[in-house]
Amino acid sequence: MRRIIIATVQDRGGVLNRITGMLHKRQFNIESISVGASEVEGVSKMTFVVEISDRQKLEQLTKQLNKQIDVLKVSDITDKAMVARELALIKVVATGHTRSEIQGIIAPFRSSVIDVSKDSMTIQVTGRPDKVDALISLLRPYGIKELTKTGVTAFLRGQQPDQVTEINSMTI
Predict the structure, then answer these.
(1) 35-46 pLDDT, tens digit each
(2) Other C-beta atoms within 10 Å of 61: how many?
(3) Percentage of residues in the chain with pLDDT exceeding 90?
(4) How many C-beta atoms lie closer than 10 Å to residue 4's C-beta?
(5) Is residue 61 left, alpha or beta, with left meaning phi > 0 and alpha meaning psi from -120 to 50?
(6) What SS3 state is found at 16?
(7) Which homologous superfamily is 83-153 in?
C-alpha cells in the first residue's frame, strides 16, 4: 500500500541524509520525497511517498522516524483529508504542425508552456499526481525529450486537531 508520510524536522545539515539512510537500511522504498521550508524558521517539512506492505511495517517506519534526533513530528496523512500536489516539467517534441495540438491537450490540465524552441516545447504542470501522470501519458506519443517531477508535497486540509504542534513556543 502506498502511504504519504510527513516528517517535520529541524533544518540542519545532514538531516535528509540520515533519514533516507535509515529508510534505506530498513529496506523501505521511497517512491518520492519532497523537502522544503515550513512556516517556522529553522523547521522543514519532508513529504515521503513510500510503498509499505502492511500495518506493522507502517508502525515500524513511524517509530524509526520518531527516534531520529532532528525529527519533531511524524504523521501518516494518507487516509486523512489532505491537499497533495506535484510539479512536472515536460520537454516534448513539437513541430510547427503539432504545437497547436499540444496546446489543445495541455489546456484542460491548466498547464503552461514555459519554453519554446525550434523543435520542442517545455510544459509545466502542477496538480494531483494522477493528473500529472495523465498529462504525461497524453504527451508521450509526441515524443518526450526530457521529463522531471518534484515528487508529492502535501499537508492536511483545514485545521484538524492532530495537526497542531508546539515547536519552539510557536504553533504551526
Answers:
(1) 999 999 999 999
(2) 21
(3) 77
(4) 23
(5) alpha
(6) helix
(7) ACT-like. Chain A, domain 2 (3.30.70.1150)
**Distance set, CA 163 to CA 35, 37, 66 (Å):** 18, 17, 16
Collapsed DSSP state (helix, strand, coil) of residue 12 = coil
Fold of domain 2-80:
Alpha-Beta Plaits (3.30.70)
**Contact of 110 with 123, CB cutoff 8 Å:** no
Over residues 142-166, the pLDDT tens digits come to 999 999 999 899 999 986 544 434 4
Is residue 53 a contact partner of residue 27, using CB atoms and an 8 Å limit?
A: no
Count of CB atoms situated within 10 Å of the CB of 110: 10
What's the chain's average pLDDT? 90
* DSSP H or E stretch at residue 166: strand 166-167
For residues 112-132, average pLDDT: 96
